[in-house]
């Protein structure tokens, strides 16, 4: 999961987000897993940002053959 986390942090920073690097992972099964991402600043357009962050995270997770995650941003 460290590699996945590093890839997500790098991509989020490239897109202008401010991840702290603190992530919470919860994995019950391949189909049921979640990530909590801590940002220094929540963008003003939170809904649009959440959609973009979900897309980024799930693209990276699928590239790593990990499937889709439920994502929480705080």
Proportion of residues in helical segments = 40-55%
State the distance separating the first and last CA atoms. 20 Å
The largest pleated sheet is described as:
3 strands, mixed
Q: What's the arrangement of strands in the largest beta sheet? A: 1-2-3
Low-confidence stretches: none
- Mean pLDDT equals 91
Tally of domains: 1
State Rg.
Answer: 11 Å
Number of H- or I-type helical stretches: 2
Secondary structure tally: strands: 3
CATH class: Alpha Beta
CATH architecture: 2-Layer Sandwich
> How would you describe the shape?
globular
Strand content: 25-35%
Helix/strand order:
HEEHE
What do we call the CATH topology? GMP Synthetase, Chain A, domain 3
User: Helix/strand-derived class?
Assistant: alpha+beta
Summarize the structure.
The chain has two helices and three strands, in the order H-E-E-H-E. By secondary structure, the protein is α+β, with helices and mostly antiparallel strands. The mean pLDDT is 91.
